[in-house]
Amino acid sequence: MVASPTFQSAMIPHCLFYAVLIEAAFSFPRKIDIGHAFNENTIFWVGKSPFTVTNKNSSAGSSMPQTPFYASNDFSISEHAGTHLDSPFHFNKMGWNVADIPLQNLLVEGILVDVRSEVQDNAEFTLQSYHLEEWEQMHGNITTTTVILINFGWASKWTNKTLYFGYSRYQCHFPKISKEAAEWIANNENIVGVGVDTASVDYGPNDDYKVHKVLSRANIFNLENVNLNNVDLPARGFSLIIMPMKLSEGVAAPCRIIAIIKEENVQNITISTVDMEETVNVTKIINNAPCHLKIDFNCLIMWCLITFSRIIGYNLLQYD
């Protein structure tokens, strides 16, 4: 049996949809690890313990050829070393510790405030509330559960501890967040975390930790030593998966952070023919997929196919 021309024309948008969907989904989303790896070169806060492998075992040197390979290490590290999460309990007795932070605060939308052009390697630079107000005027209000990342351009110094901490007269000097900016952040109930590419959200040579205290009071966690070097994040339009070690009484914890970026090149792709009652917007289908489905390519494909199935069924049932 030869399919009628009308049936064939009805099938064209379906084939186009599959082709466009596969092309779009393979490039959507992009995933970037924005945490520093932990090793013997990991930078740690002044006076804290470095990352150390304390007991390294391996069967690689065994004299018995039939012995299967086996490796096992012990390690120790300060809570405040490398890329890590500071819990609100750090400066708030009633705040969450690491394990208490709700999962919905760790699977969030991300925004990026990029002030590198203003910092210009100035260790005394201060992020003010007007920087955040200008960002909001340009990119829109923050209306969903969000973590703010501040790019000072400091992650490029990570491999040089002296430059990164900005040591001068036994004090640390690196860009900071002002108390007023911290209060602006704390006053937005949708902001649950703040990340910086420096060693602290506070100014280096201080002992009052004003920013930590303001944020902790609002149960906002900090991400410190975030690796934003050579990372092309947009101002908004990406999600974050924040994975601290689940320490039941942790004040802070080593942390891995994954940014999931919406593919900006897949914009307003639509499919329609005279035989279809409606236009299918492929981009809209992908963008409307739940955040947890966007992480997995197979789940994203399945979501799009289910969404499109109503249109497929309607059009095919018109022909025999």
Can you put this structure into words, describing what you see?
The chain is of the alpha/beta class and about 325 residues long. The chain has 9 helices and 14 strands. A 7-stranded mixed β-barrel has the order 4-10-9-7-5-11-12. The protein has a two-stranded antiparallel sheet with strand order 2-3. A two-stranded parallel ribbon has the order 6-8. The longest helix is centred in the first third of the chain and has 22 residues, at about 5-25. The protein is globular. It starts with a helix and ends with a helix.
Concise overview:
28% of the residues lie in helices and 22% in strands. The chain has nine helices and 14 strands.
Q: Can you tell me the overall shape?
A: globular
Distance between the termini: 11 Å
Low-confidence stretches: 7-12, 316-320
Helix fraction?
25-40%
Note the main sheet. 7 strands, mixed, barrel
Report the portion of residues in β strands. Answer: 15-25%
Return the average pLDDT rounded to an integer. Answer: 83
Number of helices, counting only DSSP H or I runs of 4 residues or more: 9
In the sheet with the most strands, the strands line up as: 4-10-9-7-5-11-12
Task: Report the radius of gyration as a whole number of Å.
Answer: 25 Å
**Total DSSP E strands:** 14
Structural class: alpha/beta
